[in-house]
Amino acid sequence: MAKGDISTYNEDGVWKSKVEGSSRAAHVGGTKAEQQAVGRQMAQDRGVEHTIRKMDGTIGEKNSYGNDPNPPKG
What we know:
Elements: E1 6-11, E2 14-19, E3 27-28, H1 32-46, E4 49-53, E5 59-64
Parallel strand pairs: 1-4
Antiparallel strand pairs: 1-2, 2-3, 4-5
């Protein structure tokens, strides 16, 4: 992930949203859906990519709200 992108993930049973490149999460707590909404808004405000990770740490979803370096074809 590029520096400045937003990542929503679960760490020790707590959902968090973090700006990549920072040392700690910007928002902590709530449900996965609540943190997804927080992360989505952060990404939209910054015009960056939002990555949502599953409980096991794998990527579940990615959304781009800015200049997408890999736009879908078709």
